[in-house]
Amino acid sequence: MRLFIAEKPSLGRAIAAGLGGGKEKDGAIYLGSDIVTWCFGHILEQCSPEDYDEKYKRWCIEDLPILPETWKNKVKPDAKKQYLLIKKLVHEADEIVNAGDPDREGQLLVDEVLSELGVLRAKPIRRILLNALDEKSVADALRSLRSNDEFVGLRNSALARSRADWLIGMNLSRIYTIRAREAGYTNTVSVGRVQTPTMGL
């Protein structure tokens, strides 16, 4: 069985139409030996500091910087049902096709699910690149599947961006908030890699 995992439902339905239609049921479309399912954007999110260690519930300068040795993700609460469906289908599949958007985030959001499920290097994975959802574009893309391994650099780029955001946001927000409270400020000071310089501009 070949499993397509799309970034979002609209993309999944376009791929299914390109494959000949099929029957949609409970988060997937079934077309004989092909199945198309989808994420809803990122269905995994990075764990918060307190998910790594309970001590991080208390914001304390002595614990900074927080630098995870092994990065962990968790399923977003509103995506648990879809995640469990993808998990079931992934383990039944003989081949998987990453149908994320053709950019670094699209690459990562499907790859991170496959990595979390332990199949990123254990099963044959291909990549479909779709810039448009019209019939001709979908048909051309289905004829031009590539190895997912060709896009490791794209995935790592998105992963680096994501982890940089976490490190800056989690650590600097805590230190700025602690120092601000020492000066009498009572709210949380939110610091972000993109947010803070953009607001400064």
Walk me through what this model shows.
The chain starts with a strand and ends with a helix. The mean pLDDT is 95. The chain has seven helices and nine strands. Strands 2-3-4-1-7-8-9 form a seven-stranded mixed beta sheet, with helices on both faces. Helix 1 (9-19) packs across helix 5. It has helices at 9-19, 49-52, 80-92, 104-116, 135-142, 152-182, 195-200; strands spanning 2-6, 23-25, 28-31, 34-38, 44-46, 73-75, 95-99, 125-127, 146-147. The protein has 201 residues and is α/β, with parallel strands linked by helices. The chain is elongated and about 65 Å long. A hairpin with a 2-residue loop joins strand 3 (28-31) and strand 4 (34-38).
Q: What order do the strands of the largest sheet run in, or round the barrel if closed?
A: 2-3-4-1-7-8-9
- The total count of helices amounts to 7
Secondary-structure content class: alpha/beta
Tell me about the largest β-sheet.
7 strands, mixed
Gap from first CA to last CA = 51 Å
> Quick one: how many beta strands?
9
Helical fraction: 40-55%
pLDDT below 50 for ≥5 consecutive residues: which ranges?
Answer: none
Strand residue percentage = 15-25%
Report the mean per-residue pLDDT as an integer: 95
Q: What would the principal axes of the Cα set say about the shape?
A: elongated
Order of helices and strands: EHEEEEHEHEHEHEHH
Q: What is Rg?
A: 20 Å
